[in-house]
């Protein structure tokens, strides 16, 4: 029997949605949209805000930066080949940054949903218990 570590490593827990159409971009094409693994989603969350202190004026500056194009580039796949649409992340960000904000935001929200970022911890535990049981005997 495989160890718990091996079972976790082999788990297929990253959700996806098939048959996503974006007719404004490629009429008739079907995309697969995937949630992101924990490390990618956490890196995105950690990069959202940045605080800088300037000693000369004792001012603190906070900037918020959106990286929705990056998240979409990481989660958008060709459904037929199961390959990333943008294997070159920089190029994908550059292209998506010039596309419709509404479409990019919609794809971002879908990836966020598939990554389970829209749920609080209690809901995530409850969902896991429903799928796997609560482990109690």
Low-confidence stretches: none
Mean pLDDT: 84
Shape: globular
Question: In order across it, which strands form the biggest sheet?
Answer: 1-2-5-6
Helix/strand layout:
Elements: H1 4-10, E1 16-21, E2 30-34, H2 38-47, E3 49-54, E4 59-64, H3 68-75, E5 76-78, E6 83-84, H4 89-96, H5 101-114, H6 121-132
Antiparallel strand pairs: 1-2, 2-5, 3-4, 5-6
Helix pairs in contact: 3-4, 3-5
Quick overview:
This protein has about 140 residues and is an alpha+beta fold. It has helices at about 5-10, 40-45, 70-75, 90-95, 100-115, 120-130, and strands at about 15-20, 30-35, 50-55, 60-65, 75-80, 85.
Would you give an account of this structure?
- The protein is an alpha+beta fold and 137 residues long.
- The protein has a domain at 16-38 and 66-118.
- The protein is 43% helix and 20% strand.
- It is built from six helices and six strands.
- Strands 1-2-5-6 form a four-stranded antiparallel sheet. Strands 3-4 form a two-stranded antiparallel ribbon.
- It is globular and about 60 Å long.
């Amino acid at each position: 029997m495989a160890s718990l570590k091996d079972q976790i490593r082999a788990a297929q827990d990253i959700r996806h949605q098939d048959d996503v159409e974006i007719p404004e971009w490629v009429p008739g094409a079907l995309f697969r949209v995937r949630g992101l693994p924990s490390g990618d989603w956490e890196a995105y969350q950690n990069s959202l805000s940045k605080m800088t202190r300037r000693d000369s004026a004792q001012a603190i500056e906070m900037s918020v930066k959106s990286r929705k194009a990056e998240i979409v580039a990481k989660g958008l796949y060709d459904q037929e080949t199961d390959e990333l649409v943008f294997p070159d992340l920089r190029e994908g960000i550059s292209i998506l940054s010039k596309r419709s904000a509404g479409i990019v935001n919609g794809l971002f929200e879908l990836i966020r949903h598939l990554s389970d970022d829209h749920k609080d911890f209690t809901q995530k535990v409850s969902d896991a218990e429903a799928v796997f049981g609560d482990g109690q005997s």
